[in-house]
Design a protein that fits this description.
Shape: globular
Structural class: alpha+beta
Oligomer: single chain
Order of helices and strands: HHEEEHEEHEHEHEHEHEHEEEE
Radius of gyration: 19 Å
Helix content: 25-40%
GO cellular component, one term: cytosol
Protein name: Fructose-1,6-bisphosphatase
Number of domains: 2
Keywords: Carbohydrate metabolism, Hydrolase, Manganese, Metal-binding
Family: Belongs to the FBPase class 2 family.
CATH topology of the largest domain: Fructose-1,6-Bisphosphatase, Chain A, domain 1
CATH architecture of the largest domain: 2-Layer Sandwich
Strand content: 25-35%
Bound molecules: 7-O-phosphono-alpha-L-galacto-hept-2-ulopyranose, magnesium ion
GO molecular function: fructose 1,6-bisphosphate 1-phosphatase activity; metal ion binding
Length: about 325
């Protein structure tokens, strides 16, 4: 992959964020999602790459844009797999809550796990605990390992978990062990990334969420030199068959970070839509001046860039969304 691709992908997440943020607080999650998806889709055409969507908005028959298998880019340059979540956190935007982002991951052709849209158990930790954790360990053991790796007392360790009934027992066990639990409503890509960035105060991300989000998160974790493991959770025979069709002999096999993202190189780009701990949200400052806050990083070099940009919507009318 060319290093220019990283910066091109930020332009795409910026466009998606600016468009969908216009739906913030309007109680309309589908409209917010559509705005992100169509802005993202139209920006891809200008990019020098031979991209193929491997994680996207669905199959061709159900999603007209960014469907799995869709070719993106101008047909020149590197052959890459593209994983998108144009709006990670549609409910967040509808309700005006925190931490919605537009996200893209890219890697060499064939490198991203073609995870179907189903649940996935996941765990992510930062660099210090890399190589030391396993999804098969009881959470109590993981807490001991990460506390030692991060040189923290267990009472100072924070585990971030999505607030769902399916996680109630997990939350109880983390608290019983003496660590802290930070609950979040939606957006586990942001939560996974937080576990790899010390100043967020988050030490472990764990829980069951979307498999597509899991693969996108894995690209980010790889860029941040953290660690992640996962396991698909098919809910029925049809979902189990889908896992086997994508080449997993055992749908429930343990997936390491290298199974999720097979190459040493990957790019992750995200732009904040609503205010968050990692990124600021899109700000509409008046006079059509709009500010975005993005992160873009590359696994090969480990470079992490935070990019603030000013956009003049009067000169980018295609980013204005009709209400
Ligand atoms: C998960 C999570 C996402 O939606 O897919 C979640 O990975 C859906 O979980 O980050 P539920 O079925 O329990 O609602 C997100 O939070 C947002 O897309
Ligand atoms: Mg989405
Ligand atoms: Mg999502």
């Amino acid at each position: 992959m060319d290093r220019e691709l990283a910066l091109e992908l930020v332009r795409v997440t910026e466009a998606a964020a600016v468009s969908s943020a216009q739906w913030m607080g309007r109680g309309k999650k589908d409209e917010a999602d559509d705005a992100a998806t169509s802005a993202m889709r139209s920006m891809f055409d200008s990019i020098t790459m031979q991209g193929t969507v491997v994680i996207g908005e669905g199959e061709l028959d159900e999603a007209p844009m960014l469907y799995i298998g869709e070719e993106l880019g101008n047909g020149q340059g590197p052959a890459v797999d593209i994983a998108v979540d144009p709006l990670e956190g549609t409910n967040i935007v509808a309700k005006g809550h925190n931490n919605a982002m537009a996200v893209i991951a890219a890697a060499d052709r064939g490198a991203l796990l073609h995870a179907p849209d189903m649940y996935m158990e996941k765990i992510a930790v930062g660099k210090n605990a890399k190589g030391k954790i396993s999804l098969d360990d009881p959470i109590e053991k993981t807490i001991d390992i990460v506390a030692e790796a991060n040189n923290k007392r267990i009472r100072d360790l924070t585990v971030i978990i999505q607030e769902r009934p399916r996680h109630e027992e997990l939350v109880e066990r983390v608290r019983a062990k003496g660590a802290r639990v930070k609950l979040f409503g939606d957006g586990d890509v942001e939560a996974s990334i937080a576990s790899c960035i010390p100043h967020t105060g988050v030490d472990i991300f764990v829980g069951t969420g979307g498999a597509p989000e899991g693969v996108i998160s894995a690209a980010a974790v790889k860029c941040l030199d953290g660690d992640m493991q996962a396991r698909l959770v098919p809910q029925n025979e049809e979902e189990a068959n889908r896992c086997m069709e994508m080449g997993l002999a055992d749908p429930r096999q343990l997936l390491t970070l290298d199974d999720l993202v097979k190459s040493d190189d990957a790019i992750f780009a995200a732009t904040g839509v609503t205010e968050g701990e990692l990124l600021h949200g899109v700000k509409f400052l008046g006079n059509d001046l709009t500010e975005t806050d993005s992160i873009v990083m590359r696994a090969k070099t480990g470079t992490v860039r935070f990019i603030k940009a000013n956009h003049h919507l009067d000169r980018k009318p295609h980013l204005l969304v009709n209400e």
